């Protein structure tokens, strides 16, 4: 009779080692995000500008340190935002985060919402004092206007008595007011007639969606976000416009009224600068 563990007792022990090996073989969330960012040709500064996530948080997440996020809800939101910025599906990363950090976060209780509804201020009745004051002011104004018109009529009668033509003084000239013209929307022809003392850049997502960022000559951010297919943005500056195109192959570019014919490849990241003398990239 042998003493020791039976083969059945040893199987779970071996399965646990296999699962541990699989966990170790799976790359971490931070490593996946970092490699995708590098493959897209983006720096941490580019990602921070595009997503509004602070640079220190981006560095921490790529090092698999989520303490700087401020909790599970914010950590999940940052993971989702960073994944979309580098063209990754966030669902597997969020599932991996849930496996290692205790599943989904607890739902937010709805009690504060109902408390806020219960403390809404009650409606007040009409302010009769203010209405009476407004009526008195209107009556005084009408009386003054009538007296002023009476003075004008007496002056007209005096002119008639002195031999002036009644028709000339009795029929005031009325000026017709032109209807307000609606402001036309900017078009391609307006861009073609761009002022010579400025640089005008138009970015159009013709073949798909693309993330873009635009800055003026002082480095001030003019726009950063995603253009959907069919959308366009126009930027203007006194000297320079700096661009970062996340997917340059999906973009049509017009500078100072002329189309840029560069052969941008799909998925390529381009950093461009244009001046008043272009359409060549600076």
SSE layout:
Layout: H1 7-25, H2 29-39, H3 44-51, H4 55-62, H5 72-85, H6 90-100, H7 111-118, H8 128-161, H9 166-170, H10 188-192, E1 199-205, E2 210-216, E3 221-227, E4 232-237, E5 240-245, E6 251-255, E7 258-259, E8 270-275
Antiparallel strand pairs: 1-4, 1-6, 2-3, 2-5, 5-8, 6-7
Helix pairs in contact: 2-5, 5-6
Features of the shown structure:
single chain, 282 residues, alpha+beta, four-stranded antiparallel sheet, 10 helices, 44% helix, disordered N terminus
- Arrangement of strands in the largest sheet: 4-1-6-7
Low-confidence stretches: 1-15, 108-121, 154-187
Please indicate the percent range of residues in DSSP E strands (runs of 2 or more): 15-25%
Number of helices in the DSSP assignment = 10
Give the radius of gyration: 35 Å
- Inertia-based shape: flat
Tell me roughly what share of residues is in helical segments: 40-55%
What does this structure look like?
The protein is an alpha+beta fold and 282 residues long. It is 44% helix and 16% strand. The protein has helices at residues 7-25, 29-39, 44-51, 55-62, 72-85, 90-100, 111-118, 128-161, 166-170, 188-192, and strands spanning 199-205, 210-216, 221-227, 232-237, 240-245, 251-255, 258-259, 270-275. Strands 4-1-6-7 form a four-stranded antiparallel beta sheet, with no helix packed on it. The termini are far apart. Residues 1-15, 108-121 and 154-187 have low confidence and may be disordered.
